[in-house]
Amino acid sequence: MDGALWIYLLLALTSAPPLVPNAALIASAGMLAQSGELDVWLVFLVVGGSALAGDALVYGLGRLAGGRVLRWLGRRPARRTALGWTTERINRHGVPFVVAMRFLPSGRLIGGLTAALVNYPLRRFLLGAGIAEAVWAGYSVALGYWGGAALDGVWTGALLGILVSLLVAGAAQLLSRATPSRARPTDHTS
């Protein structure tokens, strides 16, 4: 198999499942596209399309395992609260909320499962997920593409892409630990 085909395959395999960190790989593919070794539009389509396929799979798994997932979520108050919060927002805001979920930690997984559990329409979910994945794939590939052009070197750009990915992941981790989770008080008057 040609080297470029391996890269496209690796991009597809790492972009489809949620929670797989592949920002450095995508940025590197963008740099390879800038240098002419890959096609930038094909990189964008593979990354965005496989991520959308992964979102559809999460939604489908949520539909298949709905009862078991709801029982698991119901075991702890924090999980019930999180499900209630997400359910209320997806029902109130619809597609814009589905788009926004993509950019929250674990949002692809939580958003897809919640949409399936509350019977949010598949077409509307895929519309929101498609918009989100196009934006995400666009800026992820562009970071490598323009970074490679600005740095005038694939290895320098790859190193910078990996460094930026690690910094973003570290910052997200620090924010998630520093932000206290707030459970809504329950109403005991009824």
Automatic annotation (TrEMBL):
InterPro entries the UniProt entry points to: DedA_domain (IPR051311), VTT_dom (IPR032816)
Similarity annotation: Belongs to the DedA family.
UniProt domain VTT: residue ranges: 20-145
Bilayer topology term: Multi-pass membrane protein
UniProt keyword terms in alphabetical order: Cell membrane, Membrane, Transmembrane, Transmembrane helix
Entry protein name: DedA family protein
Compartments in which it is found: Cell membrane
